[in-house]
Amino acid sequence: MSTTLGASPPGSRRSARPPEPTSSGEAHRGGSPSIHVQPTDRGSSLRVGRDFPGPRGGRAGTALAPRPDVRRSGPPDPTIHVVSEPRDPFRSLTLEAFVRRLASAEPVPGGGSASAIAASLGASLVAMVAVLSEGRPKYAAHAVMHAVMGARGRELADRFLTLADEDAAAYGAFSAAMKLPKETEVDRAARSVAIRAAALTAAEVPLRCVEACRDLVIAAEALAGRSNVNASSDLVVASLLAEAAARGGAANVLVNLPSIGDEAAAKRLTLRVDGLLGEVERLAGATRQAVYSGVGRPPLPVGPSGAA
After folding, report:
1. Which of 76, 137, 162, 178 is the most buried (most CB within 10 A)?
2. Contacts of 31 (CB under 8 A, 6+ apart)
3. pLDDT per residue as tens digits for the range 131-179
């Protein structure tokens, strides 16, 4: 199969799904041995106790179940396998190669990257619907919006592919932090700082995926009832992919919160994810309702900046 996941923009690799600490303090899966963490102050959140389990030891539910460990012969290394070889960006892989790698025992990609790839497909569908509506007299009143949403869909598709690689890199940094020495007090203190910083980054990357999913359903909802009716079902699919990807990203935010060592930040991120999921669900539902109604909608004002 020669089809690649991405057309041309720079890369993405495997899921940055950081492993959840076990009772022994180790991570579930491993990643890159190098650590380069630059935490940001972006927020994130998820609906705890409703559709997703809460963080380990949290108010509701239990932590997401870890993927079974893949053990090798030799001295026991039960929890982390380090990824040391450089990896090609996910966008450079064929569909078959990506699926095979996802189905393998390799530490990456995982659920975070898979969520981002699914969202990229949804964004591509939005771009496709916009292109199929351009230049048609029946939809002339929406021409400007079609151009704006087509460009937005393409930009989002590229952004999601990049997020897939960033998720894999964040997971690798978390795994590397978990592998740091812990023989002395100094070692343990440095390791703790590294783990907390890496866990924060590993939560922030899937948060950005959830945020982008909101942008995706905004575009899909804008096109519903204002675009080529023959492609309307593709907007339904786009909304479903966006909603699933948002839920997947949110789950990966929550699973990292126990490791960041900051209750206030964890609460802020949880509230942020919860709010974003609510928006995604509402807009995805509105998209499907508009499509199923079969009723045309009035033109949507589009500002100079392209904001609908």
Report:
1. 178
2. 82, 83, 107, 108, 168, 169, 171, 172, 173, 174, 175, 176
3. 999 999 999 999 999 999 999 999 999 999 999 999 999 999 999 999 9
